[in-house]
Amino acid sequence: MASITFREVEGSSMKYWLLLGGLGLFVLFGALAWNHMHHYGHVVTGMDNQIVWGLPHVFAVFLIVAASGALNVASIASVFNKPMYKPLAPLSAILSLALMLGGLLVLVLDLGRSDRLIVAMTHFNFKSMFTWNVFLYSGFFALVGIYLWTMLDRNVKSWSKAAGTAAFIWRLTLTTGTGSLFGFLIARDLYGSAMLAPMFIIMSFAYGLAIYLMVLAASYAWTSRPLGDVVMMRLKTLLVVFVSAVLYFVVVHHMTNLYFAKYHAVEAFVLRDGGIITALFWVGQILIGCVAPLVILLSRLGSQRNWIMIACALVILGGMAQMYVTIIGAQAFPLDMFPGLIESSSFYDGVVHSYAPSMAELFLGLGGVAIALLVTVFAIKVLRLLPASLDDATVAKLEH
Amino acid sequence: MSELKPMSEQAPASPERRRFVGTAAATAAGLAIAPGVVLVQVAHGRPEDQAVSSAVRWGMLIDATKCANGCNDCVTACSTENGWTPVAESKHPRQAPQWIRKLELQDPLTQMETSLPMLCQHCAEPPCVDVCPTGASFKRADGIVLVDRHTCIGCRYCMMACPYKARSLVHEHLNDTQKADVPRGIGCVESCTFCVQKVDRGDGNTACAEACTAAGHNALLFGDMNDPDSEISRRLRELPTKQVRADLNLNLGVRYHGI
Known about the structure:
The complex is a heterodimer of chains A (400) and B (259).
Chain A: E1 6-7, H1 14-40, H2 55-70, H3 72-78, H4 89-109, H5 117-122, H6 129-152, H7 160-183, H8 196-222, H9 229-259, H10 264-273, H11 276-298, H12 305-332, E2 342-345, H13 359-382, E3 386-387, H14 392-398
Antiparallel strand pairs in A: 1-3
Chain B: H1 4-10, H2 15-42, E1 58-63, H3 73-82, E2 100-106, E3 113-119, H4 127-131, E4 137-139, E5 145-147, H5 157-161, E6 168-169, E7 189-190, H6 196-201, H7 207-214, E8 220-224, H8 231-238, E9 254-257
Parallel strand pairs in B: 1-9
Antiparallel strand pairs in B: 1-8, 2-3, 4-5, 6-7
Helix pairs in contact in B: 3-7
């Protein structure tokens, strides 16, 4: 097998520093947003006692799910022994660490008492899916960190497959845990399904790969390194498979619910009567997130790089819409404590809860995205993560 | 001595009568003192260093047929006892904590209307306790479900898990209505405590139930569901009651009649 030269990006151009500065600005905005929320309390957010998890959770869960999926490319290389993916693996690992960091930061900075993070690290309730996730997230950093080390350091290269396999199994468990955060909630009609865990896994594949593809293409375009069609087309095909699988799981999930009379009301809410939630489901999650990317990627447009980028962006936007529907939609639908009766109270029982996110929540979420990208942009400057060339000839040599 | 003689002659000493008087006096004294003794043992005003016992399970019977539509006395009493601002006085009503609320129900078919208070149901299998990452949500041995205000990180997972929407997050800094024995704080989740401070003092009742009785409705009855002789146990044996969302099988500490 031919060897591949990895090289740091130079990172001295005005463009690089502007990118770093722009991302830094959003990180700063995120920090200010957190400070604002922490100082005044959640009263300055759009969240209330009805919608208890808001936009920050949408960002956080999306980033955490995407983090697990971004590792996919590395897993294909080391676990499934596909040599073409080997040069793509280091970026995959660093991107997954960076996305996880961004997501977790948003999650913990949205806590009512974010100053008590140490309590969450020292007090555990092992019946809680959240507690399990604390360990799953920490373990993820450790395992993917070790995996990255085995990729970068020749002395420990022989451990790469073992580390890669461990990280692969770990991140499947992690996304199962993230899906189960919702799947283990009996109170909400839209949750309480084992379907959520595998569905989150397949969603992680799609979202993670879409982000990976965009970061890869941008890195190569902006550093004028050659990136051949072979890599792009292979990853594009993979994205088609993942997005189709997401669509399949979403259809099965809703079809299953539609079969049970007790879920008819909540399904009618999401699919027909939910206003913004219904719009986000059909237009955001289904049309923008699944159908449009599939049409682009499967048609002749899919052979053009710009259109692949557009498809990736649509998958990401659709993913955000999906998280919004999953997290906010499930809370907006009122709890049915007395089936068949009309409920009313001072606590908004029996009515659909509205939610208008505040700027602070938006910027906290965007801050998480910015941190993830900032870490990635910085890492490719200081570490040898990107192959000097990924042109078709170089990649072809790997396969033989 | 000579003066006593006529007396003894007038009322000849009778052993039976004496025994009767003695027994009656002892019974009367016993009846007078026993409730006090029993109260000390059963009303569970316990020393601070003594742990609560699972021999007791605090619970509440809510008779919706007696709960008056439009009456809010239980809610007001709770707010006064526990120091949370009534929602009508809050600057941010959507975000204001409500430990107990009046729920109005209507059957769309029959137009039958029901009014009842909704509060933490003090489940024997509380979903909030299951999901709490730090163990801040916990259930005492006597069945009262509480939040440890010092280990709650405000993640709100318990609010996602509660099927009764019984919990609230404190969204803003608290004013000076706080009570010394009811710790609260910004960023923490809170809910009905069954007036645990009153229970531990030995009051044996909650503020809402006291207010309902004072208003003459008698719709709320608080007591030890494990004690077969308690008023609540007696009434629960007689009245058909339901648990809200009984399908979840959470074994609730609050039972409703008339729903």
